[in-house]
Amino acid sequence: MIILRPAELAHEHGLSAQAVRNYERDGFLPPARRTASGYRIYTRVHAAALRTYLALIPAYGHSRAGRIMNALHQDELDGALTQIDRGHAQLLQDRDTLAVVRSAVNHLLAEPASGPDPDRSSQPGPRTIGELAHRLRVTPATIRNWEEAGILTPARDPATGYRLYRANDLRDAELTHLLRRGGYPLDQIATVVAQIRTAGGTAALAATLGDWQRKLTAQSVSMLDAATHLAHYLNLPDRLEP
User: Fold this and answer.
1) Are the CB atoms for 135 and 127 separated by under 8 Å?
2) For residue 200, what pLDDT band results from cuts at 50, 70 and 90?
3) CA distances from 159 to 73, 124, 125, 155, 216 (A)
4) Percentage with pLDDT > 90 across the chain
5) Least confident window among 139-148, 197-206, 207-216
6) Predicted local confidence at residue 47, as pLDDT
7) 125: number of Cβ within 10 Å
8) Residue 223: CA atoms inside 13 Å, Cβ hemisphere, count?
9) What SS3 string covers the chain?
10) How far apart are CA 224 and CA 70, in angstroms?
């Protein structure tokens, strides 16, 4: 049996010996046996566990990677596999979201820009729900439905409690109206509007879609790499030896 010191285990990955000890403490590595003088005894099993854990991080994130390793070291293989399945399900959901956002952004960019509001071009400031509904030629009930779907989050007049729609709300309402005409359901529109709001506009979001796609691709490849390390670790003949 090859015996490794914490520093030797850490060196391969550019870690500190304390990081390795912390990983053992947190259950990401199996418990190490001790010498009579109290020093930890790490083996090739611990080296494989460390490689596996570090490979799981870019594939599933720190938290889920830790839960996978914890489950394995508690002899709960099904629990570990459930965490992996959930990670794959999340990635698929992210891919579906990207497809919806990309389609919607292409739809938005293909539409001509809205002209000035003929009803209030000379009256700056927030608008009421009635004014917004009139501008979009929808009913106030439709605007309230968009709010219930989480698409619009208007402020409230502190004196009257009435909804006040500011510039960003107007933009989001116009995008919603356009996407509804394009056949998008409200839950997908909520996702698109949230992404546009975060990115700072449709054009800015369009510029980030390639990066988003590349990140998802990199995560998928990381999952394949993690699966290789995990299969090797699971098949070590002495992995479950005391």
Assistant:
1) yes
2) confident
3) 59, 20, 17, 12, 47
4) 57
5) 197-206
6) 95
7) 8
8) 19
9) CCCECHHHHHHCCCCCHHHHHHHHHCCCCCCCEECCCCCEEECHHHHHHHHHHHHHHHHHHHHHHHHHHHHHHCCCHHHHHHHHHHHHHHHHHHHHHHHHHHHHHHHHHHCCCCCCCCCCCCCCCCECHHHHHHHHCCCHHHHHHHHHCCCCCCEECCCCCCEEECHHHHHHHHHHHHHHHCCCCHHHHHHHHHHHHHHCCHHHHHHHHHHHHHHHHHHHHHHHHHHHHHHHHHCCCCCCCC
10) 20
Structure-token match 């390639």, residue found: 210
56 touches 69 (CB < 8 A): yes
Q: What is the mean pLDDT of residues 103-129?
A: 65
Query: d(Cα 197, Cα 83) in Å, to the nearest integer?
Result: 31
- Cross-strand pairs, 163: 156
Nearest to 65 by CA among 21, 23, 15, 11: 23
Q: How many residues does the chain have?
A: 242
